[in-house]
Amino acid sequence: MKTIKINTKQLFVGLLMMGSTGAFVAQTSPKTDTVKVATSTAQVQTNPVIEGLKKQVEANPKDAEALAKLATAYQDATDWQNAIATWKKISVLLPDWAPSYYSQAYSYQSAKDDMNAKLAYEKYIATVKPEEIEASKKNLAYAYYFIAFSEQKDNPDKAKEHIAKSIQYDPSNQEAVKLSQALNS
Predict the structure, then answer these.
(1) How many CB atoms are located within 10 Å of the residue 138 CB?
(2) Residue 45: is it exposed, middle or buried by C-beta count within 10 angstroms (0-12/13-18/19+)?
């Protein structure tokens, strides 16, 4: 088995420089009904960026950087199923790289699959390393918020715990503050 070495910090910075940061920026609301999910298969198949990246990945299926660029390109094209599948491949290659789980969650949420989004956000939270917490606070806050939002009816005690963590990481998130007030009233 060949060990893949990738500098995840460089990969993350590289993705940011590509201008495709949607997967790594905390969202403001778990309400996905305003997200445009529809995209034609023809659009995705004729996207030259995606086609080029697919060829690069075919040539080297373990190229995590190319896979991350491909997953991000799928997200940019709102091709959520391919984005999810590609982020999952990255998670297999780099199981300790937390941003891949956050990106999966974002893609699941955009595809209106809230159950799998919640599971991916939970995996993201569990995977963030202590030395990454400071740089990940906004995303951690959103992940906890989404989980709290998802659990508020079925498990209000757990929802309260998660919303408290969300506010701990981002006290300025007004949606989290409102949910906290609703849960604690």
Answers:
(1) 16
(2) exposed
DSSP state for residue 2 in the 8-state scheme: P
Residue 66 and residue 175: Cα distance in Å, rounded? 35
Q: The pTM is what?
A: 0.77
Tens-place pLDDT, residues 13-71: 344 334 333 444 444 445 544 344 444 444 445 789 999 999 999 999 999 999 999 99
Q: Which residue has the tokens 């309260």?
A: 160
Neighbouring C-beta atoms of residue 119, cutoff 10 Å: 17
Give CA–CA dist 16/45, Å, rounded: 24
Which amino acid, residue 47?
A: N
Dig out the tokens for 182 from the structure.
Answer: 């609703």
HEC profile for 117-174?
A: HHHHHHHHHHHCCHHHHHHHHHHHHHHHHHHHHHHCCCCHHHHHHHHHHHHHHCCCCH
